[in-house]
Amino acid sequence: MVVLSEWLQKLGHNVLVVCPPGEWLHEQLRAAGIASVEMPLHGVKPIFQLSHLAREKRIDIIHTHLTRATYIGYFAGFLARVPVISTVHVLTRDFAYRYLPKHNHWLVAVSEYLRQAIIARGYPSSRVQTIYNGTDFLEEEITCKDMNLSPHDMVTPAVSLCLRAELGLPADAELIGQFGRVDSFKGAPLLVRSIKSVVEKRKRAFFVFVGYAEPGIQQALWELAAQEGVEDRLRFMGVRDDVHRLMEAMDIITAPSLTETFGMVIIEAMASGKPVIATRAGGIPEIIEDHHTGLLVDRDPKSLSEAILFLLENSSLRKEMGNAAIIRAREHFTAQLMAQNILNYYQGVLDHCRP
Question: Which pLDDT score is estimated for 160?
Fold first, then answer.
């Protein structure tokens, strides 16, 4: 939402974000130069506050993210006579996305997979638009393009060496990364169960988890790895604000999720010039071109380990896939393209609402 707001402003539009008070989001918006209003989003009161704000500021569109905001935005838009667009980020059966009256409500689905699921649950197809998320990681890649360099040329040895030193690993260590929340839904135990088969053939392979891990889950992963005798191959880095740098230092990035409606990590990895090994789940096959920009696998340790080994053993193919991935990300998953597609949808909704 922050990236979208930035690009809407760059494209000449006024953006005002309503967000909960005292949270990280307000600080990020302020740092990005985006106007925001802090408002408690509980109960009925924010409906009337947002409705008043929409009339006072002469708001043309209310765009909501996540379910609580969808309810508040919907009723506030009804009172203020402002159309409401709600982005659906997850597979949900909530009442808001099925039965709320449709006269001033439209949806954005972050993948065609999700759009079809919403339609199957009763929402009119004419009011659901697929618009892929975009990443701003590609802004740095534009400099790379202007200098006539491949994405891999921009990853200096110092970046890779610094991360390996930070992790206490040798300079020639092979890094397989997973980014995002560390849990079973995102496939962390599955990745751990694939390690033994990998390290039997690749003695310098290490597995790096970047993202929040509950202490109990992290301990369970250590114990799972210890059962296989590979606990020394795990590294947990926690929540970081230098994700792009970390991705650039990886050899391979994995996303063995149970399902994903889209997969921001995947397009960020692609924008960083990295091949992604991911499961054939949800909207992921809409992002990755199998054996061209990455690999799609079944959700089992054998399939995952075989794919990891295949790419580790073929460095030239990794580079080709990484270059193809960044080209695909540039063509389909930029923040600017996302914002322009959202603007086109806004205009279509406003045209529909005009008398």
Answer: 86
Per the CB < 8 A criterion, the answer to whether 61 and 42 are in contact is no
Please write the tens of the pLDDT for every residue from 121-161: 989 999 999 999 999 987 655 444 444 444 444 455 777 88
Pairing assessment for the beta strands 252-255 and 234-238 based on DSSP bridges: unpaired
Low-confidence stretches of the chain (pLDDT < 70) are: 139-156
Nearest alpha carbon to residue 256 among 190, 183, 181: 190
Structure-token pair, residue 63? 């765009």
Q: Which two tokens stand for residue 72?
A: 């508040």
In this structure, how many other beta carbons lie within 10 angstroms of the beta carbon of residue 236?
15
Torsion of CA 140, 283, 208, 268, to 10 degrees: 0
Residue the block writes with tokens 């922050």: 2
Residues 342 and 241: their CA atoms lie apart, in Å, by 27
CA distance 94 to 104: 18
Distant-in-sequence, close-in-space partners of 191: CB < 8 Å, separation ≥ 6: 176, 178, 207, 254, 256, 304
**What is the reported pLDDT for 159?**
79
Would you call 269 helix, strand, or coil by DSSP?
Answer: helix
Same domain, 112 and 6: yes
Task: Give 233's DSSP letter.
Answer: G
Q: Which domain holds residue 305?
A: 138-332
Q: How many domains does the chain have?
A: 2
Cβ 191 vs Cβ 256: under 8 Å = yes
Burial readout 66-86 (b: 16 or more C-beta within 10 A, e: otherwise): ebebbbbbbbbbbebebbbbb
Q: Within this chain, do residues 109 and 165 fall inside the same structural domain, yes or no?
A: no
Q: What's the rounded Cα separation, in Å, for the pair 129 and 107?
A: 6
* Residue 44 DSSP symbol: S
Q: What is the CATH number of the domain that holds 46?
A: 3.40.50.2000
Residues 151 and 270 in one domain: yes
For Cα atoms 180, 162, 277, give the angle at the middle one, nearest 5 degrees.
35
Q: Examine the domain organization and report whether 245 and 181 are in the same domain.
A: yes
Residue 327 sits in the same domain as residue 339: no
